[in-house]
Amino acid sequence: MPAKPVKNDAATAVDARGLRCPLPVLRLRKAAISLPLGSVLDVTADDPAAERDVPVFCAERGWVCKRLGDGHWRIVTA
Fold this sequence. Notes:
alpha+beta; TusA-like; Sulfurtransferase TusA family protein
């Protein structure tokens, strides 16, 4: 079952649990494309590769990426 962005009051949640590399980053990208700059996304992923891939993907785009815990990040697009 593909992860879909879910809009809540604080952020757009991207639940990529159960997806393997590169799908968590692709789901993040897909969710961010439809949002204006400065949007906040909460990403959850349980693929070990996401621990490296999500922060690198964000850094390449100049996005702020804060690790909130294992497999959970808050991202602000720029």
